[in-house]
Model the fold of this input.
Amino acid sequence: MQATATKLTVDGLSKTYRGAGGGGNVTALRDVSIEIGEGEFVSIVGPSGCGKSTLFNIIAGLVAPSSGRVLLDGDQPDDLLGRVGYMPQRDMLMPWRTVLDNTTLGLELNGVRKKKAHQQALAEFERFGLAGFEKQWPAKLSGGMKQRAALLRTFLAGRELMLLDEPFGALDALTRAEMQQWLLDVWQEDRKTILFVTHDVEEAVYLSDRVYVMSGRPGGISLDVEVDLPRPRRAEVTMDPAFLDLKQKLLKPLEAAVADPGRIGDGPAAPGSNR
Amino acid sequence: MAPNSKARRIGARVLPPVIFALIVLTAWQLYVEWGNVRESTLPPPTAIAESIWDNRTMLAENAWVTIKEILIGFAVAIVIGVGVATLIRSSQKIERAVYPWLVVSQMIPIPAIAPILVIWTGFDMRPKVMVIALVSFFPIAVNTIDGLRAAEPELLNLLKTLKANAWQRFRKAQLPAALPFLFSGLKVAAAFSVIGAVFAEWVGASEGLGYLILVLNNQTATTDMFAVIVVLALIGISLFLIVSLIERLMLPWYYESRQVEAEGLELEPEEVA
Done:
């Protein structure tokens, strides 16, 4: 990978939630540092409850960290809200808007005129596999199409960094594989910077330039692995010995974390963490 | 959808209740005729229909009085109901202070305070409108309160990351999410408003369908009383249908989502709300 400018720097981030009703404090994140280069596809894998979602909410500007900094292009912005594209786990399409009007939500809030926003969105409908469904209500879409519509909404909001929180987590295996391939193709064309959260190691390796492993509670980064498999990637790569090696390497700290009850307890889930 | 299959689907929904009603009415008619039941006890449906036709002018005049009361009372209930709901949802402190009393207020039997309203305001239209508004506003308020809570926190967060301010979040997410709930409340309130109108007129009135029932009751004119009841029911049904029609026009997405669900296409129940 060629040297690129750093898009996102997360520096020593920690988050502690005050325990409610006399309960103890819950530390969701402890000293998390990550870095993502311009145009890089980076994944974070970790078991549920490891604080992935808290980390995402902090980077998106929804939650303030207890300590640490988030830098964009090397600067610390006053407000992260509106700087980062954010796609929550569930599609969150508004049932009262047509698919087209859902995808233009970000443009609309940016003050772009409806007609122009529609033009801009329609130009992408083919590539996002939504052609012919412009005027439909989201309820009529399949699970995969809903996720693509949500992705288009995030994409059209025009942020340079996109956070995708387990976007394919709820899909069946076949649709999921299709969507991964599709996402790779789309990303290959635009090279947007993507931070992708998943609990599926194979998905992380297949999609990413680099993978961070998060483990434990409180969540911390326990591994940072470069994925130097050639691009563009096809499904065959998952049989490659290099791919399997990487998978093995990533699974080890995860298994250790799951096996050690001291690190992954049955304690109360931190608010804002995975449901 | 082909118009033919649409017509068939509507037929499939309309026909069974109509057939059921015809069976019940026929059984009623035969029971009265063969069982030697006196008309002052239970008049046959044909006699009721005849009474409606014979008294059509009187029924229409009095129905108009009651309809006016209901429409004004219903409108007041919507304003108060939505207003109270918005106020309660505007701050947690107000919600904590007011919500329990809103529920307690429903423990008061409203018809029982109708005479007091008459003492306060006299025999004109005002006490009737107030009783109707009082019985109808509660389902509207409670449903709207639930509706204003219905927007998903994740959606509101998403809007925040898109730089939406509080007004935009309300306008684009919380309000549209609340509308199906508001309409559920309106449908319940439509039924309540007719009950309220009859009670209010019993307490003190010189015209209207509720008043007519009292007068006919004194004369033991059972058949004519049934005629009035039929007209009252028709008013309630019409109000309900008008609310449903407005709902369908205003919320096509809601109506169609429910249809998708009914047809068993893939749709998770939580997405329907």
